[in-house]
């Protein structure tokens, strides 16, 4: 068990200190760690491996609960593990005899409950020696998917953005940046970027876009509503997508989405599937963090700072009715369809990492 | 044959002996009892006796929505398995075994659902619930046991007095509970953080059938931008796509009218109003509505349904034994179940 502990400790520390931030970075680091954990440890049954991965997962998630992508990647890996074992079991039982083995129940619907035969899955199945390499192979495929995630998303750009459109966005998102740059190859359009105070990541975004030759305008956050009536589409990036289709995105996103809804302007969210979490927003603050308020009101304003409380929430929760379309690496989906993707990508037993 | 076996009696005594038992589970249990006593020698005779018994059950109670869901579930299960019967007696035995294990597990389901809903109850929140639902009470009791501090408003639900029952149960669990009039939902909505209701049944489009008053609560919640959660167990789901038919066949006979006329009652129910096209009452039938015995009856004459239908767009989330689902997710699961 100790073979991987140092690596886990290292990643846990980095997550805690926020040395590693951003969905994409943390998910790649998590995946790399899991490959080591799975390949360096001894395990022989599905339960052993799932418990092993879950125990690592629990520590990583607790290290920084707002980085939802960590949990998502662990769930994806657990799903792959379960699938591989299931496959190995079914081929094993076919070889043994023609005994019909019921698939492991993935859902406990009432009807399944009635149909259950009460037979226990046999534990003494001989798994083929290729199982380990198969699982690692599958996980490497997830890794490839993560690395090429922007390609699949940006390929849909020319379907969504048309000539002479005015697009609005907020904050800096690598996904949206790639998306817009790709669209600019074929089309000419204008982008309005809200500056996204107090981090001003919108300004960085505008700089990147203008470097790519896109006609870009920076507007103050307070002007979003005023300018919205001229906009054709709002394209947003996000930190995480929750199970009901709600977003956890940079603060200011809710305001922009609400302004868009007021003017009936379509809101499109570009996101990789690794940001899709099976968790629900139990309330609006569930997955929020507050940052150092220095950038909102610095200590040089000493007289004032004594008299007021300053907070700097980093994220917004945007409820699903504000979003019209999600562009993921698997195509475009309306918010109501996301539960389907969750069913396909995660096992219902893995939504929490309780052992 | 089943004639000398009293299914309804068994059902009633089951419910009487264990008030915790839910109606569909009790129905399945009584059908299992029937199988035990069945002397049928052919499958056809056997199936007939089960169908007959579930019909008896359905017509024995006023509000049969969840009961018939249980019966239908069991019937569907028996029918599906009747194709490959090698030995009739062993088949019957296996049906009994499975039915009994179902009854045992069904209870565990309720606990699982309650568990799922607990994180939605936040410290310091105020919850509005409607009438009495076993699973909603269980959910709130669990949340209280988790040391969450929250307040509850419960509607009195004048027809069944379910709210008073709820209040008793919740107060016993140490949850501050206030009973309000059904008409006061709009008044309290600003004070609450979420609305939580149970479910008699869930229809295939993800809509909800529940005790009367749920629909208006959902509308009020939507207007006030408060989440509206429904707690449902999936065996109680109904596969009725065709709501007008549903209304005519099952909902309207629960009317508490003195002189009951299926046609006249239709125009009063909310479902008929919302899906009106096919269920518009003819003028002739409206006239029969006035054909009442006494003037007092005439004054009290009116539609008095027990349940109503809430369309899916008013429901934020449903807590089911399949997990927490959006209405469209429930719809998907139901289609899988009945395919």
From TrEMBL, chain A:
Pfam family, one: IF-2B
Cellular localisation: Cytoplasm, Cytosol
GO cellular component, one term: cytosol
Keywords assigned by UniProt, alphabetized: Coiled coil, Cytoplasm, Initiation factor, Protein biosynthesis
Main location: cytoplasm
Gene3D superfamilies to which the protein is assigned, alphabetical: Translation initiation factor eif-2b, domain 2
Domain of life: Eukaryota
Coiled-coil annotated residue ranges, if any: 132-159
Gene Ontology MF terms in the entry: guanyl-nucleotide exchange factor activity; translation initiation factor activity
Family the entry assigns: Belongs to the eIF-2B alpha/beta/delta subunits family.
Subunit structure: Component of the translation initiation factor 2B (eIF2B) complex which is a heterodecamer of two sets of five different subunits: alpha, beta, gamma, delta and epsilon. Subunits alpha, beta and delta comprise a regulatory subcomplex and subunits epsilon and gamma comprise a catalytic subcomplex. Within the complex, the hexameric regulatory complex resides at the center, with the two heterodimeric catalytic subcomplexes bound on opposite sides.
Protein name: Translation initiation factor eIF2B subunit beta
Organismal lineage: Eukaryota, Fungi, Fungi incertae sedis, Mucoromycota, Mortierellomycotina
UniProtKB/TrEMBL annotation, chain B:
Organism: Modicella reniformis
A GO CC annotation given for this chain: eukaryotic translation initiation factor 2B complex
Predominant place of localization: cytoplasm
Keywords: Cytoplasm, Initiation factor, Protein biosynthesis
Family classification: Belongs to the eIF-2B alpha/beta/delta subunits family.
Gene Ontology terms for molecular function: guanyl-nucleotide exchange factor activity; translation initiation factor activity
Keyword Protein biosynthesis: yes
Keyword check for Glycoprotein: no
Quaternary structure annotation from Swiss-Prot or TrEMBL: Component of the translation initiation factor 2B (eIF2B) complex which is a heterodecamer of two sets of five different subunits: alpha, beta, gamma, delta and epsilon. Subunits alpha, beta and delta comprise a regulatory subcomplex and subunits epsilon and gamma comprise a catalytic subcomplex. Within the complex, the hexameric regulatory complex resides at the center, with the two heterodimeric catalytic subcomplexes bound on opposite sides.
Start-end of Low complexity biased regions: 274-289
Region of interest (Disordered), residue spans: 274-306
One Pfam family named in its UniProt record: IF-2B
Name of this protein: Translation initiation factor eIF2B subunit alpha
Subcellular location: Cytoplasm, Cytosol
């Amino acid at each position: 068990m100790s073979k991987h502990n140092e690596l886990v400790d290292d990643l846990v520390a980095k997550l805690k200190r926020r040395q590693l931030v951003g969905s994409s970075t943390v998910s790649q680091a998590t995946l790399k760690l899991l490959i080591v954990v799975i390949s360096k440890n001894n395990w022989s049954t599905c339960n052993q491996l799932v418990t092993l991965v879950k125990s690592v997962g629990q520590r990583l998630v607790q290290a920084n609960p707002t980085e939802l992508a960590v949990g998502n990647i662990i769930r994806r890996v657990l799903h792959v593990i379960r699938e591989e074992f299931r496959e190995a079991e079914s081929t094993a039982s076919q070889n043994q005899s023609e005994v019909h083995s019921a698939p492991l129940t993935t859902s406990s619907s009432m009807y399944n409950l009635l149909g259950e035969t009460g037979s226990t899955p046999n534990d003494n199945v001989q798994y083929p020696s290729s199982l380990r390499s198969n699982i690692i192979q599958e996980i490497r495929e997830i890794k490839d998917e993560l690395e090429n995630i922007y390609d699949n998303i940006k390929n849909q750009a020319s379907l969504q953005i048309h000539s002479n459109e005015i697009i609005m966005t907020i904050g800096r998102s690598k996904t949206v940046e790639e998306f817009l740059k790709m669209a600019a190859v074929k089309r000419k359009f204008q982008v309005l970027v809200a500056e996204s105070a107090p981090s001003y990541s919108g300004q960085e975004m505008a700089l990147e876009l203008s470097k790519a030759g896109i006609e870009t305008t920076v507007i103050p956050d307070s002007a979003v509503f005023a300018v919205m009536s001229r906009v054709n589409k709002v394209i947003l990036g996000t930190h995480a997508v929750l199970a009901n289709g709600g977003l956890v995105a940079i603060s200011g996103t809710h305001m922009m989405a609400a302004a868009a809804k007021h003017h009936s302007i379509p809101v499109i969210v570009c996101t990789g599937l690794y940001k899709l979490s099976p968790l629900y927003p139990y309330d609006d603050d569930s997955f929020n963090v507050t940052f150092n308020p220095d950038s909102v009101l610095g200590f040089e304003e000493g007289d004032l700072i004594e008299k007021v409380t300053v907070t700097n929430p980093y994220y917004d929760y945007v409820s699903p009715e504000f979003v019209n379309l999600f562009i993921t690496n698997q195509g475009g989906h309306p918010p109501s369809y996301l539960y389907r993707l969750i069913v396909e990508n995660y096992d219902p037993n893995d939504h929490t990492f309780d052992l | 044959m089943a004639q000398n076996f009293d299914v309804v009696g068994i059902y009633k005594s089951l419910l009487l002996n264990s008030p915790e038992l839910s109606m569909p589970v009790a129905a399945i249990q009584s059908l299992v009892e029937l199988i035990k006593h069945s002397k049928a020698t052919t499958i056809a005779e056997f199936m007939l006796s089960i169908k007959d018994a579930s019909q008896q059950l359905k017509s024995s109670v006023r509000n049969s929505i969840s009961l018939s869901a249980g019966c239908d579930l069991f019937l569907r299960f028996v029918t599906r398995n009747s194709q490959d019967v090698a030995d009739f007696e062993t088949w019957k035995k296996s049906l009994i075994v499975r039915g009994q294990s179902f009854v045992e597990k069904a209870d565990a389901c309720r606990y699982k659902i309650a568990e799922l809903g607990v994180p939605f109850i936040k410290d310091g929140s105020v919850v509005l619930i409607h009438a009495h639902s076993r699973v909603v009470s269980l959910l709130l009791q669990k949340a209280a046991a988790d040391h969450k501090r929250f307040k509850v408003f419960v509607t009195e639900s004048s027809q069944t007095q379910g709210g008073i029952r709820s209040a008793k149960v919740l107060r016993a669990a140490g949850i501050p509970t206030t009973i309000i009039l059904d008409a006061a939902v709009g008044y309290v909505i600003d004070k609450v953080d979420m609305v939580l209701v149970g479910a008699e049944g869930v229809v295939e489009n993800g809509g909800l059938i529940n005790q009367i008053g749920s629909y208006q609560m959902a509308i009020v919640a939507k207007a006030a931008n408060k989440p509206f959660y429904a707690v449902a167990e999936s065996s109680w789901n109904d596969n009725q796509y065709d709501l007008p038919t549903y209304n005519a066949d099952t909902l309207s006979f629960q009317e508490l009218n003195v002189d009951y006329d299926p046609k006249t009652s239709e125009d009063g129910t909310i479902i008929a109003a919302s899906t009106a096209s096919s269920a518009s009452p003819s003028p002739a039938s409206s006239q029969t509505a006035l054909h009442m015995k006494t003037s007092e009856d005439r004054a009290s004459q009116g539609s008095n349904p027990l349940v109503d239908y809430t369309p899916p767009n008013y429901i934020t989330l449903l807590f089911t034994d399949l997990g927490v689902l959006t209405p469209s997710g429930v719809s998907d699961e139901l289609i899988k179940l009945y395919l």
